[in-house]
Amino acid sequence: MTSIERVRRVIRGEPVDHLAAQPMGMMFSARHAGIPFIDYTKDGRKMADAQLKFAADFGVDCLLTCSDPAREVIDIAGDASVDWFTDQGPVINEERAALTDKLLLRTFRVPDPLGGGRMHDRVKSIALMRAAAGPGMSIVGWIEGPLALAAELRGVNTIMLDFVDDPEFAHDLLAFCADVAIAYAPAQIAAGADTMGMSDAAASLIGPQLYAEFVWPQQKRVLDTLRQGHPDVLRRLHMCGRTDSLMERMRDLPVDIYEIDFPADLALARERLGPGRVIAGNVSTITDLMQGTPEEVYAACERCHATCGRYHIVSAGCELSPLTPPENLRAMMAYARDHGSVAGG
Description:
Layout: H1 3-12, H2 27-32, H3 37-42, H4 44-58, E1 63-64, H5 71-77, E2 82-85, E3 88-92, H6 118-133, E4 139-144, H7 146-154, H8 156-165, H9 167-191, E5 195-199, H10 208-229, E6 234-239, H11 247-250, E7 257-260, H12 266-273, E8 278-281, H13 294-308, E9 312-313, H14 326-338
Parallel strand pairs: 1-4, 4-5, 5-6, 6-7, 7-8, 8-9
Antiparallel strand pairs: 2-3
């Protein structure tokens, strides 16, 4: 059974040969391949090589193209707001945020995802992955969610103030960021992505009222556009942190796979998202995978599986630490291989 078929059967609630496992390995895969992470983020060929080795050596059920928060930012506004490090991805320096002056939003344009910039680099990486892995491997493309990109352009602290101080501007900025995601996804799909991941990490920092007013409508617009234009492509939502208070609204998004971080209450997620929605993740990247033993990782996977039941993909709550002991990741993969689509199966 191919990885694509395995994931799609889980989504349909059909039996599988074993559970799908899709841990988010970025810095881990670069380190495993002996590639400085800064090179991984700058060169799509190196990203492809690292992801292919990661999947081959550990039996992971996807190639993941998430890497850093600055691809869209740099193509929109240049790299003046970005700090680079030797073995770390680029980070946004909020003191030099690209949109410190709100009036600059009027000058911003949705970048061409095939225009030779960092967005294009991811597209080229996907094409390389698809050519090397063949048609059966699941490839997860990646777009920044509306609030994530807004926070990267404006600064996370500043956009939080904008919700109160200038709600009209906040709506306009999030709409622009959604437009960027809508333009970016098709290029990745055309290159070979069968799943589109959307990260909106900053959403866990706001409450349900602000989420419902500002963020959820733009998330839904992105996901609806994907569903209508590319109905065969799976939609995956990743929102770091504790999202318990947002789950009732998250349930109404057209999402195929919810990636639930380890601080969130998994039983509550199952209850609020509904019995037939696929949930990935929730194994702690810190206490289980980085600090725990293989036996503890296996038990954590078992707990998540028992809570989620048939509609479950084995995964960590968020990105694997590069310091994760390889034997702990192998324990996660062993759990997936040892079990069918229901706990104990």
